Give the backbone structure.
Amino acid sequence: MTSLSEHVLEEIRELPARYPQPRSAVMPALDLAQEEVGYLTAEAMTEVAAALNLDPGYVEGVATFYTLFHLQPIGKHRFYVCTNLTCTLRGANEIVEHVKGAIGVHEPGELSKDGFFSYEEVECLGACEYAPVMRLDHRYEKDLTPEKIDALISERRSPAAAPAHAPLPSPLPEGERVKPKPKPRPRKRKSG
Ligand code: FES
């Protein structure tokens, strides 16, 4: 049994032609897989590797390195809040705190009780002039305020909310993806 649909696999197979280094296609490919399945299962990663003719260990290494990729179930609606310099200077930390309080979670990746929401902190989204900025359901939300966050959450909780994956505008050039923050590496203990 496969976890990815044939049309997503086809999209993934076409990705390497868009990059000078075909291996660079691994991140958008994992993004597509995660979008379809909800998170990256071992099976989905194996299928991505096969579709790109890459070593499965390499694909898994990329998936486990970046916080943008999830190996466990995550919220249907995910806040990717930019906490890079410009956004931080314009209140990104307060936005993160507000998101956490509003959806009732304590840390990145934690699922809200209703299973609807989770959040991540990410690197620059390429829209610094609109800081603070985040991505939610593939849409860029700019000039964020607590009131905007509350309105976005209410929209998604209401039955009339916009679909999660509506093709909405992004300030990034076509094909460019969010730069995720690498997961922190364990610190080496000092000997002696
Ligand atoms: S620093 Fe946040 S979009 Fe650039």
The CA atoms of residues 3 and 44 lie 6 Å apart. The domain at 6-65 is CATH 1.10.10 (Arc Repressor Mutant, subunit A). The longest helix spans residues 26-37.
